[in-house]
Specification:
The chain is of the alpha+beta class. The protein is built from 5 helices and 7 strands.
């Protein structure tokens, strides 16, 4: 029995040490991958879109192309359109993201919906748009995965988030893409737990993959 208890204590201690190391060293890097202090701490577009929204992770990348060559790839995103340029098996239902610009998908407006599921039952709505400068996508769901009208009364339990893409010029003619956003969730006590255990690591995995593909596609 003493050996079993000692083994359990050792496992618990190892788990605690692992969690502490992740929170102290890995998580801070994950939350600001590629971003400068100014990009993390400064204002970010779309702050008024999500009522009582909390600023989410800020990630950034420099692309060897001007904003005019990056923007067309962003505006044609959507499961029913060009995909998301990330891990297609995970976020695009196995459909391959586009490798070319499609002129028919370039005209977008606030209020348009970019499908997040093939059947159209969930979507990202264009909530903010500034040509070649900012694209803000909003998803509003109850915790059964059903969309609700964010202009109306929110359900008792919900997730309401903005996924933003901010584009800036660099001094040498390249572009800087800064991805961040805002998130509101109820029940509120569950939000930090979901963020640390699920949202933050999964977002890092998908966003870094999208950055990598955008760097290649925009050339």
């Amino acid at each position: 029995m003493k050996k079993i208890e000692a083994r359990r204590l050792a496992m618990a201690g190892g788990a605690a040490a692992g969690i502490t190391a992740y929170l102290a060293f890995a998580r801070p890097r994950l939350l600001r991958a590629g971003a400068t202090d100014d990009e993390v701490q400064g204002p970010y577009s779309g702050s008024g879109v999500i009522p009582d929204g909390i600023r989410s992770a800020t990630m950034a990348v420099t692309i060897d192309a001007p904003r005019s060559r990056v923007w067309p790839w962003l505006v044609q995103m959507g499961t029913d359109r060009a995909g998301w340029y990330s891990w297609d098996r995970l976020d695009n239902f196995g459909r391959r993201s586009a490798r070319t610009i499609h002129p028919e998908w370039q005209e977008i407006a606030v209020g348009d919906r970019l499908a997040a599921k093939p059947d159209g039952s969930q979507w990202w709505e264009i909530a903010a748009l500034d040509h070649e400068r900012f694209l803000g996508l909003r998803m509003s769901l109850d915790l059964r995965g059903r969309p609700f009208d964010p202009a109306g009364t929110r359900p008792r339990h919900f997730t309401d988030s903005l996924w933003g893409f901010e584009l800036k010029d660099t001094a040498d003619g390249r572009s800087r893409v800064v991805v961040s956003g805002y998130w509101s969730f109820r029940p509120k006590w569950l939000q930090p737990l979901l963020s640390v255990l699920l949202l933050e690591p999964s977002h890092w995995v998908m966003q870094t993959r999208q950055f990598s593909n955008l760097k290649r596609l925009a050339l």
